[in-house]
From TrEMBL:
Domain (ABC transporter substrate-binding protein PnrA-like): residue spans on this chain: 38-295
Protein name in UniProt: BMP family ABC transporter substrate-binding protein
Protein's organism: Rhizobium sullae
Family, similarity comment: Belongs to the BMP lipoprotein family.
Keyword Coiled coil included in the entry's annotation: no
Residues making up the signal peptide according to the UniProt record: 1-24
Pfam families recorded: Bmp
Transmembrane stretches, start-end: none
Record's subcellular location: Cell membrane
Membrane topology, from the record: Lipid-anchor
Lineage: Bacteria, Pseudomonadati, Pseudomonadota, Alphaproteobacteria, Hyphomicrobiales
The entry's keywords: Cell membrane, Lipoprotein, Membrane, Plasmid, Signal
Top-rank taxon: Bacteria
Gene3D superfamilies xrefs: 3.40.50.2300
Main location (coarse class): membrane
């Protein structure tokens, strides 16, 4: 049975006990499963709500208990992590996202006997594992499907910036497309922001004017790309499941979805802990770990998509080539 903490009570219990740091950790020894400490209140954060679904599935499938600790904002994250670590009984304590990394590094240093992990961020220490998604593997499949679907016409990808993770995102897409059609034109642009929907839409229109028939946006504010597609003759490949859910009521011109899923990623992380195969420093989870959602390739698809069989077959071949080790996807 899952136990949910009342956050204030949890912190107060630690403070009132007078136990802090490693001393408290050593004082308690019972096994109370796992804990997951969120940064923001769950009620207003769809990404965190998605993570909870993965944790609940892990509890059901693996027979484990996960204490879910609601967030109160970034400023309270450190106290909540310390409250959990002070119990001294968790097999591992997890958290998520880039902004949490530095705080987790500090807390992990004070509780050297406690295992921690972070998903979607980087923290350091001998007792911390940082998990990321090998996005280039998913985008390789996207590129192969897009090239098959475009029948030789140009395709495009739009990223928020040129950081190494997003360069890997683009590199996978280009490599997948070229694996199907070495001569295909792949338009690549960076918006320079993750919060500029107007500019992202303008970049999409520029790619459409150059003949792009499928556009894959990963610029943080992608909805304009979806909504301009039908009028300007291109389809969008969804890279974010939240965007996809928000856009679908307006029935945009949609090609397909290739997106990493927070629930599946955190499920895969807990699976590694249960099977004692977790890494000690960092780990990129990819297609083998089941962290991507790709219709008709990783699941049975849905009526949202009307994909020709050759596109599905192209996606399955790209997927199999990576999982079998036949293809190693470049990151730049």
């Amino acid at each position: 049975m899952k136990r949910r903490w009342v956050l204030g009570a949890a912190v107060a219990a630690v403070l009132l006990s007078g136990n802090t740091g490693a001393m408290a950790q050593e004082a308690l020894g019972d096994n109370c499963g796992y804990a997951y400490v969120f940064q923001e209140p769950l009620a207003g954060n769809t990404a965190e709500q998605t993570i909870v679904k993965g944790l609940e599935r892990a509890e059901a499938d693996f027979g484990i208990t996960i204490d879910i600790i609601d967030g109160t904002g970034l400023s309270g994250l450190g106290d909540n992590l310390r409250a959990a670590a002070s119990k001294g009984c968790y097999l591992a304590i997890g958290t998520a996202f880039f902004a949490s990394g530095e705080i987790l590094t500090q807390v992990a240093r004070d509780y050297p006997k406690q295992r921690f992990f972070i998903e979607g961020g980087v923290a350091t220490g001998p007792n911390v594992t940082s998990y990321a998604q090998a996005n280039q593997e998913g985008t390789y499949v996207a590129g192969a499907m897009a090239a098959t679907m475009s029948d030789g016409k140009p395709i495009g990808i739009i990223t928020g910036d040129d950081s190494p993770p997003l360069k890997a995102f683009s590199a996978g897409f280009i490599a997948g497309a070229k694996s199907v059609d070495p001569d295909i034109t792949v338009l690549v642009n960076s918006v320079g922001s993750f919060m500029d929907p107007a500019k992202t839409g303008a970049v999409a229109l520029s790619q459409a004017s150059k003949g792009a028939t499928l556009i894959f946006p990963a610029a943080g504010s992608n909805l304009q790309v979806y909504f301009l597609g039908e009028q300007h003759g291109y389809k969008t490949i969804a890279s974010d499941l939240t965007d996809y859910s928000n856009a679908m009521p307006r029935k945009p011109a949609l090609g397909f979805v290739v997106a990493s899923a927070e629930d599946q990623t955190n499920y895969a992380i807990l699976k590694q802990y249960v099977e004692d195969t977790h890494e000690t420093a960092s780990k990129a989870l990819g297609l083998r770990d089941g962290v991507f959602s790709i219709p008709f390739v990783t699941d049975n698809g849905s009526e949202d998509f009307d994909l020709p069989q050759k596109v599905i077959d192209g996606g399955k071949k790209a997927f199999d080539d990576i999982v079998s080790g036949k293809v190693t996807v470049p990151r730049s």
